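Inputs:
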Amino acid sequence: MVKILRINTRERTFTLEEAGDYAGLGGRALTSRIVNREVPADCHPLSAENKLIFAPGVLTGTKASSSGRISVGAKSPLTGGIKESNSGGVVSRKLAKLNLAAIVLEDKPERDAPFMVVRVDKDGVTIEDAPAVGKGNYEYAKELDAKYGGSATCALIGPAGEQCLKSSTIQFTDMEGRPARSAGRGGMGAVMGSKRVKAVIVDDSGAGNVEYSDPDAFTKASKRWAEIIREHAITSQALPTYGTAVLVNIINEAGALPTKNFREGRFDRAADVSGEKLHEIIEARGGKTREGCHVGCAIQCSQQYLDEKGEYVTSGFEYETLWAMGPNTTISDMDDIARLDRACDDMGLDTIEMGNTIAMAMEGGLIPWGDGPAALKLIEAVGEYGYLGKLVGNGTTYMADAYGVDRIPVVKNQALPAYDPRAVKGIGVTYSTTPQGADHTAGYAVCQNVLSCGGDVDPHSKEGQVELSKTLQIATNAVDSAGFCLFVAFAVLDTEDALQVIADMVAAKAGVNFTPDDIMALGKQVLDDEVDFNRRAGFSEVDDQLPRFFRKQLPPHNVTWDFEYQEMQAVKA
Amino acid sequence: MVKILRINTRERTFTLEEAGDYAGLGGRALTSRIVNREVPADCHPLSAENKLIFAPGVLTGTKASSSGRISVGAKSPLTGGIKESNSGGVVSRKLAKLNLAAIVLEDKPERDAPFMVVRVDKDGVTIEDAPAVGKGNYEYAKELDAKYGGSATCALIGPAGEQCLKSSTIQFTDMEGRPARSAGRGGMGAVMGSKRVKAVIVDDSGAGNVEYSDPDAFTKASKRWAEIIREHAITSQALPTYGTAVLVNIINEAGALPTKNFREGRFDRAADVSGEKLHEIIEARGGKTREGCHVGCAIQCSQQYLDEKGEYVTSGFEYETLWAMGPNTTISDMDDIARLDRACDDMGLDTIEMGNTIAMAMEGGLIPWGDGPAALKLIEAVGEYGYLGKLVGNGTTYMADAYGVDRIPVVKNQALPAYDPRAVKGIGVTYSTTPQGADHTAGYAVCQNVLSCGGDVDPHSKEGQVELSKTLQIATNAVDSAGFCLFVAFAVLDTEDALQVIADMVAAKAGVNFTPDDIMALGKQVLDDEVDFNRRAGFSEVDDQLPRFFRKQLPPHNVTWDFEYQEMQAVKA
């Protein structure tokens, strides 16, 4: 029977509880339910009343391909609303093997209390003072590995999280022990920092495998599941070969690649920061073009990027990061962008928020447009614990406010990702309406708007976008609750029996009846939890809209954003 | 016929319009109506779509005592809602004498365009590049006086406004040409800065007196009005003798003087920062204990505070400032606090917001509690145009966010003034519900809760507070629309014929029927405008509440804040 581990960070005590009302929930369904039930919606996100929840999906730890993601939930310091931030890494699978549905960090110590390391294994929990803090995640992860090593992997915060800055990530170690996987969005690292938890180390030594109610049925369904992923062109060819960066040329071609803080939809140097170019550089330098972010990933869209001397720089080098640090700031040197990605992982900062923050610094005249080394200094300033680091680490609006910039691409204070909503209106509806703040993963309408995956919906027309976004948001909630990588959606959308196969796996694992309808009902329940929390936190319908500058034309297609918030409320109905 | 002067700050052009739909409105009624009608509620406050409005009251420029205040309106960069910020100074009366109901600054130039000076006189408007900026208001006002002098007085922004920081004031010169009067709250200086207007100079040379429809009736009513103010103990004795600082001992005695960021209701060194002490110091050093903030003020609650060498430091040294910089930060040296007040006027910063910001810096460990010189360095940093100044000038929440502080006394992102809402519940209802964000002047229930003025309502009980706050908010809107100083309310509340006398003055001035009922209807109309704008700007009912830490007990009376936002919505009904 899976349990919920609650840790009181003030007392440094823990309790192991039955799942009770939360039984059967995993991943995002569990984090959002706990946040909505237990966290006062009007509390300060850094107060003792907020809770930080780590939850593997219901299928995490099983043989199901690409099911090893983790959900991190809390009230967000960035948005002030509910947050589920999702990551790869190895912690999730180990939690599942330890039969933990969730770890919940509660309460908080005094602000000057020493940081702590929480270590979880099959015998229980130990909490002790953390080794000296104040260094980057790469160095710190090595120190933790030297001390706790072996089967231990961790979730940790960097200098940004230690300072409780609003763009702080929680980094998860990957299969090689590098802190390169991020629960990036919404400042979850700040919540962890406010609780003075530097790292959560999970060691599954001696733990058995997860249990199946019907092992044979699970094996059968999971084999079909592996086929489904293997047979789709995006998950089997495009993503493994070029990584998510395959999108650079595609989105640029579509006229939807936001350039220079969303001024244009095409970047004249897009080829320099494309997936194809990335692949070429990695191959030339002897890096790895394919790598999974977690054990059991069938897609392998990650990589290892090396510098000119052949030394490791970064991995998990995503399209979103390439765009945020590249076209969005007009930086076009791949090595500069790779160093920015590395620096963000090292400081524990969200790359999407940071790319937009850098753009604000450029708008405000703090650094010149397109200046990669200057941008790197901004990110590294977070590790200096001074005033400039505060301006950077608190994100897009905060930096904009420092320099009186009024062109701020955020929804619910979270910065927009790599698709201009004027040219991909379905994703604009998602940005506007998801309780998460501007978030492409919350309802990835780029599939139907641009990629002709799961249908075709004209990206420039308003028609059908609200219904599309709603369906995708609900489905995504279910994907995040299962522990799947979102990229399975490409294959699921185009494969008739995919939902049934997922339902069969859940049923065979848990010993319950579970149908495709139940999947969507679960996803809707998550949406309802998140909408309810946000309403009680003070969000109104008016908050479901893009900044007014999106009403101006975007070249080259000269499209505008023409949705009113009232037209999009059906998403939440 | 009064006109509205509109200035396009991008084109540097102007138009002089008939009042049209706005005819008969003045002060806050006019600024809030224009904002609600003309400014898109979802625009960025620093964008070209925001407008900055200066409006004298409908009785400003007349013989009515204490009627020379000015309303400044815009969408607030601090709160994101509608804002009316009110000030003394000499500009208001001169605008009235020039027959201007309002100056409206529209559009905005490029962000690196030179700052401009707008000069208004009876012959029209001239707009020219401002003298070199980047210096404090005291020095700059002298330069302007040397250049434009004589009958010219001005509204100007300091280094904070130039940087568009969210606590920026607009300072108004007083009768001695000192920029010591502030439209302090809500960042109006940032809006002016975004429009690249450094100063608005108003010269009434050659203008006639304001016209009266029935001069004799006005003279009769205004004489009675002068008597009413002269006969009330607060307006004729307490305020002229001790200034608003008379409240320090009174509110401390009531257990409602917020101490060390709202931890206690009494300050053990309150006597050191009291009105009595202030009076003693000023007298001993040969300063002025009485001074009006505008021509025709019958109350004279201002003063001139000198340093130990007998040199002028500051004036308009208010209770709110003494509290914000004093008990709230545990600084208790009167000279330190006076220098902080001077520095805020010089930088163009709101003293209430800055006192709370300093408290956040102390909470966060940036400077020690009670350290006056360290606090002064923070304020002065705004004039250095560096990173620290951004953290300071953007106000309470911004500073708190830099250091992960979760005890932030704000409503709608505006910092609380000098009355703990747990011990003066009527003012707590005002803080919570006024569209202005936490603002004591919006409905000053301290009168009935503590001062036994205009009735008696138990400050610790919930009973009657919502009705009280509503009545006061509506009445205040009317006071602010007439151009009266809010302090006339003390006398009005205790004098049976006062409302009738005010109505008579309006009627005699404008040649319209006007009754006490019309006064309240006008006030309600203003509230409706402001509530409507905020709703369209994204505020929900949930935003009408105090931070959760006010639910904890406040010594010495161990009272808590126990209103739910739902219970207070009747204010806006």
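Chain B touches chain A through 46 residues (CB under 8 Å). Flag for discussion at group meeting.
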